[in-house]
Write a structure and sequence with these properties.
3-stranded parallel β-sheet, Ribosomal Protein L15, Chain: K, domain 2, flat
Length: 172
Amino acid sequence: MAKAKEKDEGKQPLEQPMQKQQKLNLSTLQPPKGRTRSKKRVGRGQGSGTGKTAGRGHKGQKSRSGYSRKRGFEGGQMPLQRRVPKRGFHNPFRVDYAVVNLDTLGERFEAGTEVTPDLLRERGLVRRGKQCVKILARGDLAKPLTVHAHKFSGKAAEKLAAGGGQAVVLES
């Protein structure tokens, strides 16, 4: 046993050649071997397995050239989008308002400031450019502010006046 160990210790182990590790990035990504298949080439003779009818079967609409199924087509049965009744109403004259509350105005503006829709957009309280602004009465406002807006809720106008401010209605 001891002699066998000495023999083994005297030999140097064979070094395995290091395989070159490729850096992984988007240009070197590949599926593993055997993962992908080549495209099925149809209509290339009987030996291919998809010759003659090219996998479409005999006759019928689907075997013809130019066939495409219409969206929602259910084989002649009344399609779902026509079976379900229409509901609701879309008002073409609806006006969307960007809502700003009094407590927000109290936090973001100093006393005596004239608050306009442009100033609200500048400070990030209103997002879209051509949107009307409505002031609602959430929270309390102790500062006297002059607020220009397209609409005010009843309570919001009262709270503004009680705080020493003014509510100025703009035309849409």
